[in-house]
Structures are given as structure tokens and as C-alpha cells.
Amino acid sequence: MFGAIYERISRHFESWGGQATIAIVGATGTGKSVLAENIAERFDCGILSADSMQVYRFMDIGTAKVPIEERRVPYFGIDLVSPDEPYSAARYQEYAQNVLKEEHKSNRPVLVCGGTGLYIRAALDEFSFSPGTCVDNATRIRYEQLAAERGPAALHAQLAEKDPASAAAIHPHNVRRVVRALELLDNGSNYATQSAQMRNYQVREEVLYIGLMASREHLYHRLDLRVDNMMTAGLLDEVSWLLDQGYRAALTSMQAIGYKEFFPVLDGCAPIEEAISKIKYATHRYAKRQETWFKRDDRIEWFNL
RNA sequence: GGUCGGGUAGCUCAGUUGGUAGAGCAGAGGACUGAAAAUCCUCGUGCCGGCGGUUCAAGUCCGUCUCCGACCA
Q1: What three-state secondary structure class fits A32?
Q2: Cα angle at A165 between A159 and A166, to 5 degrees?
Q3: A183-218 pLDDT, tens digit each
């Protein structure tokens, strides 16, 4: 199986050389990192991580970062910010596109590897996030309060009045997205127009997409084992250390799987076993969502494990 | 051996005064352009432990057997 992937990738390197980009995608636990490391070493190129949680420093075990001592090639996209710094797909896009530009300028191919679908697209697709300044936090909080006070339906109705197309595209219960659409309006943009671009998968010949997948049964088993291994590697200590440093539970970074589940344990109101099984279940669902995301991208060439 | 609980969806359990069952979790499918490991949508027929009985009708009442738990000997 690896042989087939190596062959496919070699061919791509031969045609594009230092301008080649190879994306290795798929659900968590399918072995993307190991494959990427092997290929990057063999073809002498760097790895750009496309992972919304590996960007945070100090969150090492739970986000399954490749340990520094095991890295044999340059890595990008890891440890970019501290856990209390707001990060976003837009910020990642700017960063990633810059890495790609710089590497290609030096005639080095790049391996993009990750499971955050939106980040993969932000890095490799020709689309831009809403122009202009980023919406300030106050606006967001205002809309969230509105939803809390008058209910999600009322907020959605407000959106429907101002922007029927976007309202139609977002389920009324999806407060987060309704809020975002309202923010965009305030900012002179439009959710529906933007998201329409998302369905446009442009083919760039220099980019090769390799997708890794495994049967659910097999994958879930592997993921469960990985969680157990994270525990022996000291995941609980990592979480408790982060909290000790003052990184509070409400932070986006702390919503990561393998972190938020331990808060009740550290507060002493839940047994550790409960957290572990919650982490396993959450990981299963996450893997499923990742598959759903990547499945519809027909540029991806799939390899079954 | 006896008394009392309890055996209902893969798991934990609800089930009103008898009218052939429903939640959470798990699981499956899907959406998704500035939080994306987030957020959101859809999907629940299962010998209601077995067998008899009462009744027009039993998960629901009665008898009996069986299994699990607690307690008493």
C-alpha cells in the first residue's frame, strides 16, 4: 500500500520538482504524520501542518504533535501561538500561503499534512476570507447576548430580514454561524456569497491530494489505543499544567478533544475513566466529521489502509 | 432455603389509572469561508426474560419457571 503511494508521489515530484505541493489528508489516526515524515525525509522537503490545534504551544500530547526529537525535516504550522491567543482560519491562511510561497521560491516542494479541512482549503485553494478588518469581539458578544436573551430563532429572523440568502443557508439553531453571518453583514460582506465559493473546487495541477482512510472499526480501535497511549504519556498532567498556567477552560484552544473532558476530573467531580471514554467517543465523532468533509472533494486520491 | 428489588433498543434507564413502547449515551448519514478537535441538522421495531392465565385488549394485573442484585437464615 505504501508502495503505491510512494510511486504516485514520486511521479508528482518528477513532474513538478520544487514547485510541487502534496497534501496528505484524512481522518485523525489514519497515519498521515508517519507517512508525511517518511516522504518528506525521502524527498527532502518540509511539512506544513494543517491542524487547528497543533498551532497552540504546550498542547503537545493531546494534539498528537510529532515530538521535536523525532522530527527529521523542517516543520511549519506548529506552535505558532500560545493557547490564550485568538487564532483563526484566516490567520492560518496568511501564514500557510506565505510558507508555501517562500519554500517554492527556494525551489523546495512542500508537504501539507493535516486533518482540519478548512485549513487545508485555506492553504491551497484560491479563496479569500472577508476583506477588511476582522470583526471586533464586542459585535460578536452583542449578537450572542441577543441569541441568549431572545432565543436562536429571533436572531435567525433578524438575519433573514437583512440577508435572506444567508439565512436560508444556515439552520436557525446554529447560533454560531448565524452570528458570523450577521458579523459579515456589518462588515459589508455576505455569508451566502462567500460560502458559494466553497463549493468550487479548482484543480491546480501542481497540487496532489492524497487521502488516507481505514474502515471505521479499524480506525476506532486505533484511536482508542492512541488515547490510552496519550494517557500513559501524561496527557492529564499536560492539561493540569495548562490550567495551572492560567489558560482557562473557556479558551478556544481548551475546547480541543482530550483537554476539555478533563476539567470535571481536575475539579474532582468526575472519575478519570469517564473522561477517557468521553475522549474516545468524541474522537470517533471527530474522525467521522473529517471523513464527511474530505469525502466530497473529488481532487483527493484515496488510499485504503 | 426465605424475603424484597430488578430483568424493556448495543449500554444506562423512563414507561402515567391495562389500549401492542420512548429518552440519554453509543452508532450511522449529512452541512459547514475569520472559534472548524468548534458549531449545527437528520436517523430509534425492540421475541418489553420464558411459559401459562385474567381481559375485547398486558411491558403494565395474577400464577409459575429462570437469571441478576441486596438482605435474612
Answers
A1: helix
A2: 55
A3: 999 988 999 999 998 888 999 999 999 999 999 999
Burial of A269 (0-12, 13-18, 19+ CB in 10 A): exposed
How buried is A62 (Cβ within 10 angstroms: 0-12 exposed, 13-18 middle, 19+ buried)? buried
Give the CA A217 to C1' B51 distance in Å.
40
CB of A95 nearer than 7 A to strand B: no
Angle between helices A152-162 and A137-150 (to 10 degrees): 120
Assembly ipTM:
0.94
The answer to whether A142 CB sits below 7 Å from nucleic acid chain B is no
How many angstroms separate the CA of A274 from the C1' of B13? 18
Q: What pLDDT digit, counting tens, does each position of A8-21 carry? A: 999 999 999 999 99
What cell numbers appear for A235 in the block? 496527557
- Rounded CA gap, A278 and A272, in Å? 10
- Closest C-alpha to A93, from A133, A48, A63, A59: A48
> Would you say A294 and A226 are in contact if contact means Cβ atoms under 8 Å apart?
no
A292 Cβ contacts chain B strand, under 7 Å: yes
Which bases in strand B are touched by protein, i.e. have an atom under 7 Å from a CB?
A: 25-41
Sign of the dihedral defined by the CA atoms of residues A272, A274, A275, A277, in that order: positive
Q: Find out whether A116 and A146 touch, Cβ atoms under 8 Å.
A: no
Strand B contact at CB of residue A11, distance < 7 A: no
DSSP state of A28: T
The reply to whether A32 has its C-beta less than 7 Å from any atom of strand B is no
